[in-house]
Amino acid sequence: MTIHELLKAAVDSKASDLHLVATKSPLLRIDGQLQETQFPVLNDKIIAELIFSML
Hints:
The chain is α+β, with helices and mostly antiparallel strands and 55 residues long. It has a single domain (3-52), classed as Beta-Lactamase (2-Layer Sandwich). Helices cover 35% and strands 20% of the residues. Strands 1-2-3 form a three-stranded antiparallel sheet, with helices on one face.
């Protein structure tokens, strides 16, 4: 899973937000409702890697 894949999923779903929370799979806000994605559950290390990959 890459940040590019997550952002593409958000755009494709017409989501307004992408939420990255440890112990949950990435969440998308679609029409005001948070919806889980089919991506794997995140942890602190994965979230850090996703964010640092953008820097």
